[in-house]
Design goal:
The protein is an all-alpha fold. The protein contains nine helices and no strands.
Length: 183
């Protein structure tokens, strides 16, 4: 059931607004024609790997295109075996987090928040999703939301220095805002 919910969340994000290009719709027929779920997972992994290469080169638009294609494949994957569903969950989480990282680089903070919320809806203690959503919240000036995510991440990984540093940074901003409101 979790797999189907995750898949529906993925479809919801892809079809909401303009996240898909017209040519992406042509892929649906192809994906649906594939009879072997492992082929679909392999296509999706290949697009993810191509997205990772683009990301490393600083081509965030190219990375997003490849990650989106990977998600298109994953969103129409019909899986019966539990092992395949586990592979789906791991791959989908990775692709969605990579999309969020690309969008964070492009300062598309609202999309980052949506993507990370999808992950957190299925994996509430995912530290990468919590960190990325906190960064997106900071990007739109929602420091209280960022603080909440960072505190949850800190509970999961109390010795993670990035979390500790960002939490201090956000708490200082909140303290400064509170101080200014009391003057």
């Amino acid at each position: 059931k979790n797999y189907l919910n995750f898949q529906e969340d993925l479809k919801g994000f892809l079809f909401d607004g303009s996240n898909l290009e017209n040519e992406d719709y042509d892929l649906f027929g192809f994906v649906l024609s594939l009879e072997n779920p492992k082929d679909v997972l392999n296509y999706s992994r290949n697009f993810k790997d191509e997205g990772n290469s683009s990301f490393k080169k600083g081509d965030f638009d190219g990375a997003l295109e490849k990650y989106s294609l990977s998600c298109v494949f994953l969103s129409y994957l019909a899986l019966q075996e539990e092992e395949a569903r586990t592979s789906f969950s791991q791959l989908a989480s990775s692709v969605v987090l990579n999309m969020a990282a690309s969008m964070l680089k492009k300062k598309e903070f609202n999309n980052v928040g949506q993507l990370c919320s999808i992950i957190l809806g299925h994996h509430p203690n995912n530290v990468k999703a919590l960190l990325r959503r906190a960064n997106a919240s900071m990007g739109v000036g929602e420091y209280e939301l960022a603080c909440w995510d960072l505190r949850v991440a800190h509970e999961v990984e109390p010795f993670n220095q990035e979390i500790v540093r960002k939490l201090k940074e956000v708490e200082q901003v909140l303290y400064s805002i509170s101080d200014n409101n009391h003057e």
